[in-house]
Amino acid sequence: MAEEEEKIEPTITGMPIETLFRRHSQFLLVLAFCFFLGWYTFALFLIAWITGARWADNEGYLEKYNMELVWGRSFLMWRTDWGKDFIEKVSQKTVFWQRVGDVWVVTVFLIMIFMFLLLLWQATLAWQIPKSASVSPKMMIGLPGLNPVIPLWYGILALVIAMVVHEFSHGILSRVANVKVKALGLLMFFFPVGAFVEPDEEEMKSMKKWERMRLYAAGPGSNMVIAIIFSFLFSSVMVASLEPSSDGVLSASVVLDYGGEEAGLEPWMLITEVNDQTISNSEDFTNVMNETYAGQVINVSVLNKGTPETYQVTLSDKGSYFLKYYPNNYETWMSGKGFMGIAVVNPEVVADSLANPGSSAGGMLQYITLPFQKLQPFPEHFTALFAPTGIVGIIPDSVFWILANSFYWIFWLNLMVGLTNALPAVPLDGGFIFADGVTGMLDKVRSSMTAERKEEIVDRLVSLLAITVLFLIVWQIVGPRIVGTEPVTLNADINASITKGWSDEVFEFDASNSEGAFVSYEWDFGDGNTATGEKVQHNWSQGGLYFVVLTAKDAENRQSVAFQEISIDHEESGDGDVGGGGDETVESSVNPYVESVNIYINLTGESALPLQEDVTVTITSPSGVVFEEDYLLGAQPQYVEYKTSEGEMIGDWEVTFESNDPTSDFSYTYNWVTYFQDNS
Q1: What CATH number is attached to the domain comprising 517?
Q2: What does the pLDDT read at residue 320?
Q3: Is the domain of 470 the same as that of 512?
Q4: CA-CA distance, 406 to 234, in Å (whole number)?
């Protein structure tokens, strides 16, 4: 009988491929997922870490230092007895820690309810979030360097403190309840990502439920205490000491496609001069800007990260900006005024809001979301605006800002760790507290129920809740991608028959070229008159530059706003008679955006004799008398002409006809023509 031929299997590094894939399937799946999401750098770190850790484990190096691989042989767990003596010493204040533990249990229960309701509310937002704005999975990873908003070194420092405080608190409450602490340790993945205190499991099972709830509540409860302490240090000690390093106003935001942005101005610049006038606060800025006009070129001096710079800004029209973006806030005085497209705030307001975050709900939300606003760690453009004063002012600036940033991140990550661990989902602390709480309730209301039945009910309820919490968290990532809103094209459009004409001339407006499923069209013609419909007509009785605003709405009341500038030139005429020694005045008002004022007058004396009537014609503009001439009139008409396109033309005008002699009667006719700018 021939010898059985040996089966040869393909191998990699001496291991059959099938076995290799089976042993490392989880790692390979995670690796494939990382490449799918484009996390190439993380995938390389993952390969290096897991390959190195598993090699060290296979060679026996980990066991030598009380280490082992857990959770798919990917996380490194290190056990130690270090810290036991400290826990033993601190836990001697038994009554104190029991009372603190009672407070923590109640606090964590309240946080648990709040966090669960918050997750439910966030889940409903999935239908309102655009698919393109879905949350990145990276935002759900609370690890420094992986989560884009958590800085690496500040994050590591704060996370280590949060973990140590969390686990030592568990250990202290274990010893308060006379439960043995078997070991302490760290869980590492590149760097420490978790810490643990390992109480004796058998002794924990025999604990009273309330004592066990104290033990579990100690972790998130202590994190919340540390968060409060470091929030106080950050706000009331560090930020409260800040004073603006220079006078000026802060550019809080810059509107795209307006003069400031086009000139190069950016947020967080300190504006010190506008139009060669010193700016000390936001009131100065407003007053100076109200003296400017659309189209004017002004100089704006700023401090950019402490460096003086000057920009030339061509001002836009304030009225047109508000008509385009905030039509409900538009006021007629805005038309013609200069607009830089810069929103400003006094620097001390920024510091005060950080020093007193609890002054309003919005202030607290802004405080917690500083990392998402790219204001933590404090960027250079922020640190250049302020200088520490008082006692902390003796600290070197570089050290001060490092401490301030550290305090904030210790607050922030302790808050996040505390809130997350309060969620009612095993293996989080909140899940175990919830389980003991439900068991205690069943003991009271169903005392006749068997222990096995109670355990079955609690296990099912806790499992269901844990799955629900996990689903709600994952739903924040995948929900908007599935049920989020699709981009909706809404683009109102105005087609005007003409854009420049005369008063009382009929203009036609057509919105049929608008993009979107609009069901209503509302028109505002800027003179107090409105209309509805896809096509409308209108005429203006007074000259001026008017902004026709179209608000188009769809069936879901989503709207798009468009506006069209209409230039209306105005002509008015009249006549009159002036008796000897008398006078008459003709009045007219000129609207903003005037281009020129033209007045044509004919004067005719009543006497048949030549050059008998002594007459004075005076023209007064908003800035004062601009024309004054005497005329001797006879039977032939005297022609008077006044034209101007300079000076202050906006406002009330007067033309006064005065007879300087009791016997000088005369008549007059006038033709008043006002031309307005045409920006179409």
Answers
A1: 2.60.40.10
A2: 77
A3: no
A4: 9
Q: Is residue 638 situated within a structural domain?
A: yes
Task: Say if strands 386-388 and 535-538 run parallel, antiparallel, or are unpaired.
Answer: unpaired
Place 602 in a pLDDT band, splitting at 50, 70 and 90: very high
Residue with tokens 């250049």: 384
Q: Are residues 196 and 334 in the same domain?
A: no
Judge if 314 and 333 occupy the same domain.
yes
pLDDT on residue 523: 92
CB neighbour class for 111 (10 Å; exposed up to 12, middle 13-18, buried from 19): buried
Q: Is the pLDDT of residue 218 over 90?
A: yes
Residues of the chain with pLDDT > 90, as a percent, come to 38
Query: Over the stretch 406-424, which tens digit does the pLDDT of each residue have?
Result: 999 999 999 999 999 999 9
Does residue 367 lie within any of the structural domains? no
SS3 59: coil
**Cβ neighbours for 248, distance < 8 A, ≥ 6 positions apart:** 270, 271, 272, 279, 280, 302, 303, 347
Q: Which residue range forms the structural domain that includes residue 546? A: 495-567
The mean pLDDT of the chain is: 85
Strands, DSSP E only, in 525-623? 530-532, 535-538, 544-554, 559-578, 583-590, 594-605, 613-621
Q: How many domains does the chain have?
A: 5
Q: What distance in Å separates the CA atoms of residue 17 and residue 30, rounded to the nearest whole number?
A: 18
Q: Are 295 and 233 within one domain?
A: no
Question: Both 316 and 455 in a single domain?
Answer: no
Cβ neighbours of residue 358 closer than 8 Å, sequence gap 6 or more: 364
Residue at 674: amino acid letter: T
14-28, 165-179, 356-370, 446-460: least confident range = 14-28
Boundary residue ending a domain (544, 567, 590): 567
Q: What are phi and psi of 488, to 5 degrees?
A: -110, 125
